[in-house]
Amino acid sequence: MATLLQSMKRIWPARRTVETAVSKRPVEHLRQVAPPIDIAPDDPIVAYFLSAPGAVEVDKLHLDSPALRALRTAGVKLAIPLVSQGELVGLLNLGPRLSEQDYSPDDRGLLNTLATQAAPAVRVAQLVREQQAEARTRERIDQELKIARIIQQTLLPQELPQLNGWQLGAYYQPARAVGGDFYDFLSFEDGRLGLVIGDVTDKGVPAALVMATTRSMLRTAAQHGDSPGEVLKVANNLLFPDIPPKMFVTCLYAILDPATGRLQYANAGHDLPYLSHDGSSSELRATGMPLGLMPDMRYEEKEICMAAGDTLLLYSDGLVEAHNPTRDMFSFPRLMSLVGQYGDTGALIEYLLNELRSFTGIGWEQEDDVTLVTLQRTGDSHMSDRSDANNILEEGWRVLDTWPIPSAPGNERDAMKHVEATVRELGLPERRIERLKTAVAEATMNAMEHGNQYQQDKPVEVTVMSSAHQVAVRIRDSGGGAPVPTQAQTPDLEAKLSEEQTPRGWGLFLIRNLVDEMRVSSDDHQHTVELIMSREEEDDANQGA
Amino acid sequence: MPTRALEAHVRHKKPRVAVIDLHGEINGFAEETLNNAYAEAEGESPDMILLNFADVDYINSTGIALIVTMLARARKSHVRLYSCGLSEHYVEIFNITRLADFMSVFPDEATALADPAFATEGK
After folding, report:
1. Angle formed by the axes of helices B61-76 and A507-514, to 10°?
2. CB neighbours (10 Å) of residue A135?
3. What letters, b where the CB count within 10 A reaches 16 and e where it falls short, cover A30-49?
4. Which of A390, A498, A502, B92 is 20 to 30 Å from A429 by CA-CA measure?
5. Of A448, A443, A450, A452, which is closest to residue A475 (Cα–Cα)?
6. Mind telling me how many Å the CA of B75 is from chain A's nearest CA?
7. Residue A348 — pLDDT band, cuts 50, 70, 90?
């Protein structure tokens, strides 16, 4: 007697395939493997096998079953169902005995015992195979989303426009791999600047696709420098026929004349911008329906004149609708109040992101895309009037993300993890990522230990920024006082090995050797270290020597 | 983010050669583990000790200082210290700090043990 175990594979959605291996006469065909047999879930043979107490003689079955016909064609004489937890997971199929005699009761008993023992093992093997297939699918989807995110990043401005007497800032963080928020800057030949912020309903891939379309349509509509209301009207009519049902786009479009400070704007249902002026804040109202809902809409146009020191904030609802652990919402009033209090003492975006982190607490799972765009009239046509001379945001960098790291030993690993995840999307070469991670870890350790004396209620603020050619990580403690040393002496390893010097003292030296530039500033309240690294490929032979 | 505490296991691979397998992170928390492992390895009076970093994913400046301390200890007792299994990044760190000048860096344990230094002096 030859017995060959057959395994049943599950074919999604519910079709079953039995790889049939049948012994046949003559002997030379003993190990012939028959083709897989599909068993549809509604095939009556499934119910029969589930109710059968053991081995089933295939020739004695009378069912209108495609699987039964397939079994007979394959030469199967005896089928023993493999049932695990009430589910048919396979069949143990046998052809005729070599002796041409029927299978004996002993044979059947042995086969039934074998089937009882084999069924759970087959089920486990199937589950493992299913999990492996799911893991492969997840990996593929992750890879596709990663590419989608990179593509989406290319649709956002790679650099902030440089305008004398004006300071621009931008922040974009989708809740998922890709998002429906967007912002854009449009430079016109006459020196004016268009500013766009938008939010597509929904999140993830559908929103990202509509975002890409809307951005293109807005660029098309705005190319002749028409007024904001006219541009939104044209964009709405372009978008309306193509946008999927139940989706729409809120969008604010403004045009700045940098020479005069005149800002014209129109709003397609987007969150109202806030203007910070003389220590208070106000909403900029203009009415209009979101894009893509109805054709031939009209958009109200308004304008203001921004004075020196005024700051405009454009934002998406991911900020105001963020919740804290007790489910309170960040809210419009809170944001409006913060913009009023901000008082031009630093970068508004970082200020708001820190407030958001404080509000939501560490470990917040971002619910919606968060986008912020700021426009500040500095009042000086040559340089910003901010007090922190080492703050590289003055040069038009984009904040990618910022986090508070509680000051506790070992938490520098958190900073490394966050920074790695953020800069990886910039396509930084792997070796540079590793160098930056180590430099960030060392600077964060210094900030936690020397700046904040490991007081957990004093977090270290880590901010990642990028420009077209560089990436920078700012690490700021709450220490102040004695300045951070900037010159790293090369450690004397011989002296350390002969125990003439302490074995420590490597941190600053490592940072200096791992990043392209380190900038340090201190005041009475904080120390700031900025680590700057080129995003370009390099001649690695020159590194680490 | 929880840190991955260092674990160290000592093997006496060849006559007068000890291998210390390191697992986890080499930071300020690793001092006692490293000291104990080194003392255990030294107990059999080896000529050479091979530090196997293959399962070490993080070394910070305090960890570098601990390795310097271990190297100083080895030099004092005329034991030669070697390393293997470092990632590309940490090989670079060993080059920057010049640790690589004082303890040869091998890609893996097999390569290290096949090196003539181990074959001849380790017997």
Report:
1. 120
2. 10
3. eeeebebbebeeebebbebb
4. A390
5. A443
6. 8
7. confident
Domain boundaries defined on chain B:
7-118
Q: Tokens for A17?
A: 């395939």
Distance, C-alpha A485 to centroid of its chain: 36
Based on the number of CB atoms within 10 Å of its own CB, is A56 exposed (0-12), middle (13-18) or buried (19 or more)? buried
> How many angstroms separate the CA of residue B71 from the nearest CA in chain A?
7
Nearest to A503 among B25, B69, B87 (CB): B69
Does position A329 have pLDDT exceeding 70, yes or no?
yes
| pLDDT tens-digit readout, A415-468 | 999 999 889 888 888 999 999 999 999 999 999 998 888 887 888 999 998 887
Question: Where do the DSSP E strands lie in A297-344?
Answer: 301-305, 311-315
Tell whether A220 and A305 lie within a shared domain: yes
Q: Which residues of chain B have pLDDT under 70?
A: 1-2, 119-123
More confident residue, B122 or A490: A490
pTM: 0.54
DSSP A329: B
- Would you state the pLDDT for residue A308? 85
Indicate the range of A170-174, A284-288, A293-297 predicted with least confidence: A170-174
The SS3 assignment for A213 reads helix
A172 and A124 co-located in one domain? no
Do the beta carbons of residue A136 and residue A128 sit within 8 Å? no
Contacts of B1 in chain A (CB under 8 A): 410-411, 413-414, 417
Q: Residue A429, exposed/middle/buried by CB under 10 A (0-12, 13-18, 19+)? A: middle
Pairs of CB atoms within 8 A across A/B: 78
Question: Strand ranges (DSSP E) for A316-458?
Answer: 370-377, 398-405
Assess if residue A171 is contained within a domain.
Answer: yes
pLDDT averaged over chain A?
84
- Test the B interface: residue of A416, A506, A510, A513 with most B CBs within 10 Å: A506
Report the number of distinct structural domains present in chain A. Answer: 3
Contact A203, A209 (CB under 8 A): no
CATH number for the region B7-118 comes to 3.30.750.24
